[in-house]
Design a protein that fits this description.
By secondary structure, the protein is of the alpha/beta class. It contains 16 helices and 21 strands. Bound molecules: zinc ion (ZN) (2 copies).
Length: 423
């Protein structure tokens, strides 16, 4: 039992504390959607085209703002930040890959020791809230499902879900259609359809639904393909709203065009540049967007780390060369990047480079397979230019959170707002 401010006795709402923040159990079903790669421009174009009535209703009747994604603006660090309610310095996932200087190997961060802290999802399940985490990409599942006593599966491997391992037996039966093909936009819609079923059938109280950015990598805002996808997502959002759910929408990062007027990718290959300046084999350039799932960006994004492996080569010289390279917007030491962007310092390179808007950064030209782009313009993310994301809630904010929203918002504030901040 709890005493409210006016002295009346009210039923205590269970709450959990995760990474220093307290999250209340929801009063109504709550779905948080991580709309992968949903640059605010996609929402604006779809709104102008009149194809997203439910999103518009949320923006007009609930709450809408622009928030900042965690740097680097990649999928894994941001999904983990969102479910932890904290930046990478707290949970340790600052890219898809990192360079282990001790062994000289590139290691997928989520496969290594993984996350250092607990998630909001696990915290809620620990106080009896029925939680589901559904992700398009199986690679994210382990992180989202960490210590979660609930339902957790990926669209990629929906048919392989088991009661014991995923809290649900064969998720294709829930959704009513087969596992989507790999590299298909239906992966995202499958996630949303699963969320709609889980919420409307009263199976869960909180659902985290993480999509994929296949469409956004291939299609600019306002194109027929992008608007069709926005509409398909909006239809599912409508079903969640009709079920009386609180819906929160946020993105892991935006998306930008990185091609020239002729359609060729505009890339600064930093390993080639550094080799030309200082001789080959003295640095390792790590592209932390590297991802076994998504091939259409050729592992090119807006953020790379340079590890100086030859102790005879001064870091300051490499930093100077990187900073002076066309296509690099900002370069800094790893320590400076960690301090500025709330990143774990021990996983930073010696030098961090962030692309100038409209450019991508790579290692050696030969390291990147651009054939998968198949004539389409390179669209990608990773830098500061992709940090702005939508932050939309279906319900208006209470007074305390209206005040909170007047300050800077991060995408990883979404659970705080959806659980604690709406009327
Ligand atoms: Zn993403
Ligand atoms: Zn992507």
């Amino acid at each position: 039992m709890d005493l409210s401010l006016d002295g009346a006795r009210t039923q205590a709402i269970p709450a959990c504390t995760v990474n220093g923040r307290t999250y209340s159990a929801p009063r109504r079903p709550t779905a948080v959607i991580c709309y992968d790669g949903c640059d605010p421009a996609y929402v604006a174009a779809a709104r102008a085209a009149g194809v997203v009535p439910h999103l518009v209703r949320m923006m007009d009747e609930g709450f809408a703002a622009t928030a900042l994604a965690a740097m680097p603006t990649f999928t894994n660090p941001n999904n983990v930040s969102i479910v932890c309610g904290a930046p990478p310095s707290v949970h340790g996932i600052s890219g898809n890959y990192y360079f282990d200087a001790a062994t000289g190997r590139e290691i997928m961060m989520l496969d290594a020791e993984g996350m250092r802290t607990g998630t909001i999802l696990a915290g809620l399940s620990g106080i009896g809230v029925r939680v589901a985490a559904v992700t398009a990409k199986d690679k994210l599942l382990k992180a989202l499902a960490k210590d979660l006593d609930g339902i957790a599966f990926s669209a990629e491997r929906a048919d392989a879900a088991t009661q014991e391992g995923n809290g649900i037996e064969d998720a294709t039966r829930l959704v009513g259609r087969p596992t989507p093909a790999p590299y298909h936009p239906d992966l995202s819609l499958f996630v949303l359809d699963a969320g709609v079923k889980l919420v409307t059938e009263g199976k869960v109280d909180v659902a985290y639904l993480s999509l994929s950015d296949l469409i956004q990598h291939a299609h600019a805002p306002g194109t027929a393909e992008a608007n069709a996808f926005m509409k398909a997502v909006d239809d599912r959002v409508g079903a969640l709203l009709a079920a009386g759910a609180t819906v929160g929408i946020v993105a892991d990062h935006g998306m930008n065009d990185m091609a020239d007027d002729a359609g060729a990718a505009r890339v600064a290959y930093l390993a080639d540049t550094i080799d030309a300046a200082f001789g080959a084999g003295r640095v390792r350039v790590i592209c932390p967007i590297t991802d076994p799932f998504v091939r259409h960006h050729g592992a090119l994004g807006g953020f790379v780390r340079v590890h100086v492996t030859d102790p005879a080569l001064p870091v300051a010289d490499v930093l100077g060369t990187v900073a002076g390279t066309e296509g690099v917007g900002e370069a800094m030491t790893g320590a400076d990047a960690a301090a500025r962007f709330d990143l774990p310092p021990e996983r930073e390179g010696d030098v961090v480079a962030i692309a100038a808007p409209g450019f991508a950064l790579g290692a050696h030209r030969a390291d990147h397979d651009l054939s998968a782009l198949a004539g389409t313009r390179l669209r990608s993310h990773g830098g500061l230019a992709e940090q702005a994301v939508p932050f939309i809630l279906s319900h208006p904010l209470n007074e305390a959170y209206r005040a909170k929203a007047s300050g800077p918002l991060r995408n990883y504030d979404i659970f705080d707002f959806a659980l604690n901040g709406v009327i």
